[in-house]
Give the backbone structure.
Amino acid sequence: MTQGAGAPPSRSLADALVGGAVRVATTPAALAGIAATLVVRELRLPGGISLLAGAAVATAAGAVTLWTTVLSTPARLRRAMRDVGLIERAGVDHVRGPLQKGRPRRSGDTLVTRWLLPPGLGLRAVQERQDVMEQRLSCELSCWMDGGLLHVELLRRRIPDRVGFADFYTGPHPASPLAIGLGVGRRGPLWADLSTVPHLLVGGMTGGGKSVFLTQALTGLLLTATPDELRLVCIDLKGGVELTPFGRVPHALTPVADTVEAANAVLTMLRAELDRRLAALRASGHRDLDARAAAGLPRWPRVLVPVDELAELTLRDHGQDKAAREHQQGASARLCEIARLGRAAGIHLLCCTQRPDAEAVPGQLKANLAGTVAFRVRSRVNSQILLDSDRAAMLPPRPGRAVWAHERTEEFQAVHISAAESERLLRDRWGTVPVTPCPQKPGAQPSLNYVDDSTRPERAV
């Protein structure tokens, strides 16, 4: 029988200290100190030194025991797990809590401990109480099961309140030109590489930091990658004002699409490009762009499609305008197809929304967006849509604070850059270039500058 999260409160820290001090006298370490006192007395050292030495040994042993059983981080974690109900009651007076196995592994500000849970408790029970334990320990926890033991990683490094663009991007940087800088978490700088995390979903309430995050992510990419490595197709359905500067760099394949009709046109173009690339990969016998390049064939540029605001493609009511509804349905369908098939062909999505609910983010789309950046949201329901947990609803009301979820979940402070600074950096690096008008017909498609070779995808006429 297990006790739920509503278990009675534990003893206070003072009670724990008193109890720990009482237990000191009966521990093996204390008994060893007493034995050492008797041995030293048998040596008959002059001046009463034997008694002082024995007392010092016993005191040191008691201090070590008090630290390991009451004050240390594993001891505090053990009490927190018992307090939130991770126990088993075997009778009226007998309670079993988690049992620590092995020595903690420490690496800088990170500590990893292993625990044997009482019968009937598993990882789900721990995750349901994780937020409460984090508040009690003033740190971030990462929990997983391995070999029948619960592994708990305690991250105690402080998250900064602000992360500047220059400071972040002049620090340690992944070798990949397709790495998106996220921010700084308790483990240090966070990066997402498009070659391993092909599509990202960014969500959160207005004012949380989504637009700034999107601006700094695109700026960092465009300062690193050349047009031969990365091409850009921007869809800005918030009036076309957020992403306009990114339509004036040489990476831009089209001007910024600021209407649903234009979005449908560019997504239809990209779907045709996706089909051509997949056909070429099948013909050459390669699984993806990296395998094709490793075989010595010319490398194709990857294509990044930032979408802001996603809900305009999935939810906007066009009333009796049949043509607008068709454009909307077509754009939404193309988006889901690219999310499902785009990884091997090197076409990536970066979808942003301030309405992270089940209607704005269809299930078939969300299932293919491998990485999620969740800024603060109003309700736990929105947080569950983004992260399958309540963490985004419990973030502090600080602009730029977010949660990154991919292989693990981690809180971080996003990189900050102003719009003026972004435009200045891009202008200094690339200048401005004219861009081919956005195609309104699927047949009129801008070139991706393919190098002639025997496996080049056939272009539409």
Notes: The mean pLDDT is 79.
